Amino acid sequence: MPRLIPAVPVLGLLSLCLAGSNWLASEPARAAGQQVQTPQGPQSHPLFFWEDWRLARGLPNINTPQEPEHVIVQGDVANPNLEVHLYGDKGGIVTVNQPNNNNITYVMTLLCTSNCAITLRDKNNDVDVSGLATIRWRTRVSGFHLLRPILKLADGTWLIGDKTVGLSTDWVESEIQLYDVRWRTLDIKEVVEGREAKWVDNPDLSRVEEIGFTDLMRGAGHGSGGGSRIDWIQVTGHPVPRAAARTTSGGR
């Protein structure tokens, strides 16, 4: 004669199974190995600025009519909230327009006869790029050049990062997560590494005044020789009103 299984234990087991299935249904699906972001963990930053260049009108063209260019000026900055600053060989940093190549406009370092650098500064805000801030850009780098990010902190310190973008035959988009960058001091006057030749451990990136790039090399001139071209650059970070920041720190 078959043995009867008590009903109460079976009902209890079914209740546990149903509770477990409801808990699993409430959990978001994720790929294998994907970590769950806790509320206390680092969060991605909002867009701070985007710059896509334009060629200002009315300036002498130093190249061909088919590919006009001139030394970069403030009028080449498309974002009205940004200021452009040049360092090193300022006369070698140019803005280029290519009407026959989807009308692309970019800045380049190919004509720099010594080291040069470009930065952008928001007119009203410093930026907090601590945590998961990023620099994303579309670049075309030739030769042995390596394009590097540079920062000017609100206290006047200049830093240059170890993450780079190198040779590519065509335009490429890439991203640098600033949390992963190691920094060294930068002599902005000569656009070379600082003399102390030391890594800057845990720099305070909560107030950055200028963000830009350099390849720490002179350019090779027009053509496929060494140099860097930057189509656009995007930075994420939290804005810090400059006036409030200066008041809090007691001024400069």
Give an account of the 3D structure.
- This protein is mainly β.
- Helix content is 11%, strand content 37%.
- It is built from two helices and 17 strands.
- It has helices at residues 7-26, 242-248, and strands at 47-52, 69-71, 82-88, 94-98, 104-108, 116-122, 125-128, 134-142, 148-153, 158-161, 172-177, 183-187, 192-193, 199-200, 208-214, 227-236, 238-241.
- Strands 3, 6, 9, 10, 12, 13, 14 and 15 form an eight-stranded antiparallel sheet that branches. Strands 1, 2, 4, 5, 8, 11 and 16 form a seven-stranded antiparallel sheet that branches.
- The longest helix has 20 residues, at 7-26.
- The protein is globular, with a radius of gyration of 26 Å.
- The protein starts with 6 loop residues before the first helix and ends with a helix.
Please give a quick description of this structure:
By secondary structure, the chain is mainly beta. The protein is built from 2 helices and 17 strands.
